[in-house]
Amino acid sequence: MSQTTAVYASFRSIGAYVPEKILSNADLEKMVDTTDEWILKRTGISERHIAGENEVTSDMGAKACEKAIERSGIAKEEIDLVLCATVTPDYFNMPSTACIISDKLGIRDVQAFDISAACSGFVYLLSVAKAFIESGMKKNVLIVGAEKFSSIVDYTDRSTCILFGDGAGAAMICATDKKEEGFIDLHASADGSYSDFLVTPAPGTVNPVSQRVIDEGLNFVQMKGNETFKLAVKTLTKDVKEILAKNEINSEDIPHFIPHQANYRIIKAVGDALKMNKEQVVLTVGKYGNTSAASIPMAINDIWESGRLQNGELMLLDTFGGGLTWASALLPFAGKAVEK
Ligand code: ACO
Q: Are 170 and 16 in contact (CB under 8 A)?
């Protein structure tokens, strides 16, 4: 009788790319009716990075991927799936940004596709990679969250333009037979009845490109900020409590809680509800703003590069975004720590 060995998905490496140009609160004060004090107090954001005019989502994604691949010790030729999460793709219809990133990396004849789950994109990708790996279909999955969010932000709308930044974060998710290296649990969900909380009305079949789209600025992101804020705190807290309880893990045993970086006040409220201390909660929103699908991998990259993330340490990821979508994941870091 043949016996099959169980296969688990493991988080092998992380990489990120942050564009050079900085947009500070002082810069925004010159663009809209706002102040550094208001932005800091309401969001915790001091600055965000903005991609160059000719720098597109796939450029940033490919640079983050290069780092993740190099740090994984996996050869490009061994990658058998490339997945990209973005709501600011190079092209809105086709080709997918994953296909373009694959080409820029020199990865050919490999399945590649995009997913759209807004800020939940990276954790959604983890669920897709896990399913492919644990079903035995793929072994080495390259995932990347990449956003040129500045391309859909109206820089005359003070309620949104202060929040968002550009960037990319990537990871190698690989098959392992070591259960202790595998993802512990992952939960992803959505509720389309809140789809009007965060929406980019055009272009799409509801609002195809037209003069009206341009005149009314329907190509820019629109957000019900306050309603999103309240729902985010509630959903994120509930999701984390559930995943911890289900796996009988106490919040004090989590060394790295890495929530979606949308607003310091949301992160603080969730951290407090979970009785987490400052050292446990990873905070990068102050310097990057909200980079949507790139926010969580950029934050993981920060703690990896600073030497805070060690092999085997538990990460708790928690996110929400347009859709509405939300997701949480509990997993060990199965890669090498940074070499100092
Ligand atoms: N500067 C000064 N005043 C401002 C600014 C600004 N940049 N923006 C809004 N205001 C004003 C408003 O006009 C309002 O004035 P009024 O009372 O005279 O009408 C006042 O400030 C309060 O506005 P609120 O919207 O109630 O402020 P709030 O405390 O909710 O903060 C914010 C706004 C920062 C947008 C907050 O609601 C938030 O962070 N929401 C969550 C957004 C989010 O997390 N999105 C994540 C998902 S993103 C994705 O999936 C792509």
A: yes
